[in-house]
Design brief:
Number of strands of chain A: 20
CATH architecture of chain B: Orthogonal Bundle
CATH class of chain B: Mainly Alpha
Largest sheet of chain B: none
Largest sheet of chain A: 6 strands, mixed
Radius of gyration of chain A: 24 Å
Structural class of chain B: mainly alpha
CATH architecture of one domain in chain A: 3-Layer(aba) Sandwich
Shape of chain A: elongated
Distance between the termini of chain B: 19 Å
Structural class of chain A: alpha+beta
Radius of gyration of chain B: 23 Å
Oligomer: heterodimer
Number of domains of chain B: 1
Order of helices and strands of chain B: HHHHHHHHHHH
Helix content of chain B: over 70%
Strand order of the largest sheet of chain A: 6-7-8-3-9-10
Number of strands of chain B: 0
Helix content of chain A: 10-25%
């Protein structure tokens, strides 16, 4: 997993407050020529493009009521690539539909640049959508599809033509502008759908799992393409996906959702390295969970004791007071094996070794019982030690590897 | 996607012979009817030679002209009115929030398909008689147009509704998302995509009205003879191949109509 998109400059930081104050507006586009070395630093908040305030959405009536969204609040900044991530049925598409105007919230407000748009019909919102199924108009050509929004806005013909030409160039579809949308491939349809949604220069672009119908290679290409488009147009993108890898590689910030609630909002690094809840840790990447007891704590760091009496320093989420029995989360790549069980923080027996090419996963059956602990080791030409299944091993943790979960 | 079908119907025992028998029973009588329209003799059962004379006399026949004119006036008007009603009904029943009585409305629209036609015919006749008796109103050929329109609606409704239900609703969301007002979205997206459905609905309504006999026979007043009624009247006299010629003309008109609407629907669907 992880293609080379994670190249944005991220200031080294502790799990504390982002550096508010020296705020630049989020609208200044860094100069670039298709380069992906973007320099948007998400920790510097710009103005908010979208503010969702206490939005509830209930479907059905009486006993059949289902809350698809349970009092959700989130702010999405200008010029941000923001991802709503979660399993199907978590409410992410419902939230997107509320922002687009295809549905109306049961309660709460949706502000677009400070103005409440929740009661407006979709055709009055300066927000455009890229649909999962693309929803291209089959009776129109590629160019007619792209020009549709501008036409509906009553723009003069010359302006529409110029803008359509510009959009065709942006998504590299100039050759196919006279084609019917049924005569082009899935990847090309995807580009047309993007161009069509971008042509009216919306304030916010909504993308509803737009890559899920593409095959693996094309999806990777489109991920890069989407990032490029977002940088070049400077439009706020709200991207819905259930694919955690996609979310991590593309987003400036991610909101992880489950059962109609937003569990955590943060940069990909925040979400991956400092998950606040078990669900977030479990949903994103591979994770080990360990049980322990808090023995002492100072601000931000708790000392947790394992059954083996070994202790470890573990960070914990802000606004949470860990006491007693807690669950710790450790990423498989933040731990390493040592041949001598006594030298490890915890110890166990190697039960399985899985070779992945780039790395190897060691499954360790811990002495204290419980789930297998997985250690991921990057393969290299000069691995000093080799391990055999059945061997007794110790597990060491990198500094800051363990975190207490809000359970 | 549909599962790949592995059973070849041609391998089923008896398929070929049953199919051939069915085709023969269906089409041999029609074929004989068409062949005898070319008979130079004056009997429809005894072949004497080839002539196009019966077509000539049919086309010169004033009664036939009159019947054809009546039929066209009634069928075309009934087709247009019923197709418009059916389109509006189909949109009102698929593109709005579910409303109370939706299922009932669906039943009412489709009832004419289930009620025996003779019942509808008698009911319609009594209805018009009542109106004529109570209010002294008689719409003349309008009575027939009204009756045809009503029983054509379900035939026009079915394909239009099917097309609307097949249509991807996301397209309409996409139009609204791209600043199309509900009316613009209908005009630019829904209606153009609905055209094949409307065409096949109209074709079906036209065919049903064009060859209706039962209701027309009961409701028609003097001088309101349609083609099926004309043929019926001719059969009660000694039959000549002129009837065959007229029937063949009717058949060709029907085939032409169905083919055209089929071709349009296919081109649109591509």
């Amino acid at each position: 997993m992880g293609i080379a998109l994670e190249s944005r400059v991220t200031a080294p930081q502790l799990p504390s407050q982002p550096a508010y104050g020296d705020n630049q507006t989020g609208t200044n586009l860094p100069p670039r020529a298709g380069s992906l070395n973007g320099v948007i630093v998400p920790e510097q908040p710009g103005k908010n493009a979208i503010e969702v305030r206490g939005v509830r959405k209930v479907f059905g009536t009486g006993e059949n009521q289902v809350a698809a969204l349970d009092t959700v609040s989130v702010s999405i900044r200008e010029n941000e690539f923001f991802t709503l991530l979660g399993p199907s049925g978590c409410g992410k598409t419902t939230l997107l539909r509320l922002i687009a105007g295809f549905d109306f919230p049961t309660a709460g407000e949706i502000l677009l640049h400070g103005q409440d748009i929740a009661p407006l019909p979709p055709f009055k919102r300066p927000v455009n959508t890229v649909f999962q199924s693309y929803a291209l108009f089959p009776h129109m050509t590629v160019a007619e599809n792209i020009g549709f929004g501008l036409e509906m806005l009553g723009k003069p013909k010359a302006e529409i033509e110029a803008r359509v030409a510009q959009m065709l160039k942006l998504v590299k579809m100039e050759q196919l502008k006279a084609r019917r949308t049924s005569q082009i491939s899935g990847g090309q349809q995807q580009r047309v759908a993007l161009a069509r949604a971008l042509a009216p220069q919306p304030k916010v672009l909504l993308l509803d799992e737009p890559l899920s119908a593409l095959d693996y290679k094309l999806r990777k290409e489109m991920q890069i393409e989407l990032k490029r488009l977002q940088h070049e147009t400077g439009i706020t993108f709200i991207f819905v996906t259930h694919d955690q890898e996609e979310a991590l590689t593309m987003s400036d910030r991610i909101a992880v959702m489950s059962a109609g609630k937003i569990l955590q909002v943060g940069t990909p690094r925040d979400i991956y390295d400092r998950p606040a809840e078990r669900f977030v840790a479990d949903f994103i990447g591979e994770t080990n969970f360990l049980a322990g007891t808090v023995v002492s704590k100072k601000p931000g760091v708790a000392t947790v004791k394992f059954a083996s009496n070994a202790t470890i320093a573990a960070g914990y989420p802000e606004g949470f007071d860990p006491t007693g029995e807690v669950t710790l989360v450790v990423r498989p790549e933040h731990a390493d094996l040592v041949p001598d069980p006594a030298k490890g923080t915890i110890a166990g027996t190697l039960s399985n070794i899985v070779y992945f090419g780039t790395d190897t996963h060691y499954h360790v059956k811990l002495d204290g019982g419980g789930e297998n602990f997985i250690v991921r080791h990057q393969n290299s030409r000069s691995s000093p030690v080799t391990y055999e299944t059945g061997a007794k091993v110790g597990i060491q943790f990198e500094e800051d590897a363990a975190r207490v979960l809000k359970d | 996607m549909a599962e790949p079908r592995t059973i070849d119907i041609k391998d089923q025992p008896g398929f070929r012979s049953i199919a051939i028998i069915c085709l023969l029973v269906l089409y041999i009588p029609v074929l004989i009817l068409m062949i005898f329209s070319l008979n130079s003799g004056s009997l429809v059962t005894h072949w004497e030679g080839v002539t196009l004379g019966w077509y000539g006399s049919a086309l010169r026949n004033a009664e036939f002209h009159n019947a054809a004119r009546n039929t066209l006036i009634i069928s075309v008007t009934a087709t247009i009115v019923s197709t418009i009603c059916a389109t509006l009904a189909a949109i009102g029943m698929t593109r709005v929030k579910p409303w109370r009585g939706l299922a009932a409305a669906f039943m009412v629209i489709n009832l004419p398909l289930m009620v025996p036609e003779i019942i509808t015919a008698v009911a319609t006749l009594s209805f018009f008689a009542l109106i004529a008796g109570t209010f002294g109103l008689n719409f003349g050929i309008g009575n027939l147009i009204l009756a045809h329109t009503v029983f054509c609606i379900p035939f026009a409704y079915m394909p239009i509704r099917a097309r609307l239900e097949d249509m991807d609703l996301t397209l309409e969301y996409a139009a609204a998302d791209l600043y199309a007002t509900p009316w613009n979205a209908f005009k630019r997206i829904t209606l153009p995509l609905l055209v094949p459905g409307i065409m096949s609905g109209a074709a079906l309504a036209f065919i049903v009205s064009f060859d209706d006999f039962t209701i027309t026979q009961l409701v028609a007043g003097p001088g309101q003879t349609t083609l099926p009624l004309y043929i019926w009247n001719q059969i009660r006299r000694p039959m000549t191949p002129e009837i065959n010629a007229i029937s063949t003309i009717l058949l060709l008109v029907s085939i032409l109509f169905v083919s055209v609407s089929f071709l349009i629907a296919r081109r649109r669907a591509k």
